Amino acid sequence: MSFVPLPAVGGDPASAPAGTTPGSFANAPKLAPGPAGRLTFSSPDAPGMPAPSDRTAWDFLPDGWATGTDATPDSARTFEQADGSPRWVAVPDGFEPVTQLESARLGIVTPQMTRVAEREPHLSAEQVRDEVAAGRMVIPANTRHLEYNLDPMAIGRASLTKINANMGASPVSSGTDEEVEKLQWAEKWGADTVMDLSTGGDLDACREAIIRASHVPIGTVPIYSMIIGKKLEDLNIEIILDTLRHQAEQGVDYMTVHAGVRRAHIDLVKDRLIGIVSRGGSLLAKWMLVHQAENPMYEHWEAICDVLHDRDVTFSIGDGLRPGGLADATDAAQLAELYTLGELTERAWRKGVQVMIEGPGHVPFDQIEYNAKIQRRLCHGAPFYVLGPLVTDIFPGYDHITSCIGATSMAYHGASMLCYVTPKEHLGLPKKDDVKQGCVAYKIAAHAADVALGIPGTRDRDDDLTRARAALNWEKHFELSFDPDLARAYHDEDLDVDTDFCAMCGHDWCSVRISKEIQEFASGKADGFAREKVLKSPALNAEQRAILEARGHLSPDQIHKLAGKTKTAVGATEGHKAACHSDLADDDRAKDVQQKKVPANVVELTV
Q1: Can you say which residues are annotated as belonging to the binding site?
Q2: Rounded to two decimals, what is the model's pTM?
Q3: Known binding-site positions for [4Fe-4S] cluster
Q4: Across-strand partners of 219?
Q5: Check: CATH 3.20.20.540 for 137-453?
Q6: How does pLDDT run across 3-49, given as a tens digit for each residue?
Q7: For the segment 491-503, what is each residue's pLDDT rounded down to a tens digit?
Q8: From the annotation, which residues make up the binding site for Zn(2+)?
Q9: Hey, where are the domains in the chain?
């Protein structure tokens, strides 16, 4: 038998070879300092894609700095990079690093870099340092926020894909207490960072409360605070710098600054279907038209860098001209701004400030790879942070799904962080459950991309869950799932005993049970996963009960029985066979109940 040859494969996303599939089809991982590492955890380029930049943050040093890998000049500092190669750095006399980027350039491994490596064991602290020094990774950790509860993390393509949750009070909805509750809820469901986008209420108090309560980095869009209670036309550089300085002192870890929207770009959006959808971008466009002047954030970029530098605030350079619909994607305005974002990246690196770049929110699926790879080239590998993107515009209420499809692809092709979209996107301010739905959808997207990229160890939990599923070990199955309460509740809605089959097929037609019983197969026999007998499932907890109540498929009485059942109630005492639906039917009727769940012409159950 002959097979079509497999393509060259990259790293295996499992810690140890397992199963019958090869490793990732992504490029082979190459963690290396400088330009040599620019293809680490990347997708193969389709024909016509722009090549990655061969420049890094090392090429954009502050005045008075120099570096090299050859003979070391007198008075230069030297250190060994993660791959064993030497590097020297010369800096002005008396210089002391403030930012993670400056420390990395001096070869210093900070406590924050060490913590990142602890959280991401496929990276060493020295590799984290080298990626930060190259500008391909950021550690958003305001020195003030580090005094509170912040647990340092990293955003970059060498690290795991991160997700961000947006929240914030508006003039018509929510308040500080609710936003802090949503922050904690987002952290529970896996948000790696949170952006406070409040435009109403007491913005200062809300931001302060969120920062003090959070364990994850907090981002903001400071222009919202710059114009609250003021006329847009009165915005000036003094207000801009004062607002940035105040938020930096509060502890904001990264800030969106829309300095890439320039006066010359405004003509490029005139024929768009939906114009400018970025709030910051539209405000600054109006300001430029009123004053017939250049964007003050662009003109005073170095002064803004100085403010962010003093508290090590990371730039999330805003895409004020991002497309708001498929028809406007990858147009002249978006790309013109992206060229400017590349320029601003270089200028920020010269000031020692960390940078990531924001990307588009509505992109047809076929244009996603190009969007990721043109950013990679123009911004020299600075981390790419994208909203979605949505790959279709006609599913309001389901945009957490339409966008996480695009997010998976964008992360595979190079994005480092994905800003979630909730079911309320385009419709209103997300509520608590919307936050959960958005986080879960984006955890799926991020994890799927990490497995595809071959990041070591990312498939371990998937393989373990497969082993548990093969062994029909339901407790282990639920324990390994991302949302155990949901999985258990859905299972018990149909079959509230942990049998050696599930309600989808029934006993006779269960392929997993059959495979497990074939002696020649390894399936279902993994050490630590096999179980000897059918076990009684535990009673529903409060969370699981609420899930089934919300679904509405079982009566209140049935749910009450599932939540209050005992060992005797299910007939699963030692030596007794448990009925499939023992809370809803006695042993003699268990077969009848199961048959009602499965059409008679599909399966005939045996006792």
Answers
A1: 166, 195, 224, 258, 278-280, 319-322, 358, 362, 385, 426, 502, 505, 510
A2: 0.90
A3: 502, 505, 510
A4: 195, 254
A5: yes
A6: 888 888 888 999 987 788 888 999 988 899 999 999 999 999 999 99
A7: 888 887 777 777 7
A8: 362, 426
A9: 137-453, 459-516
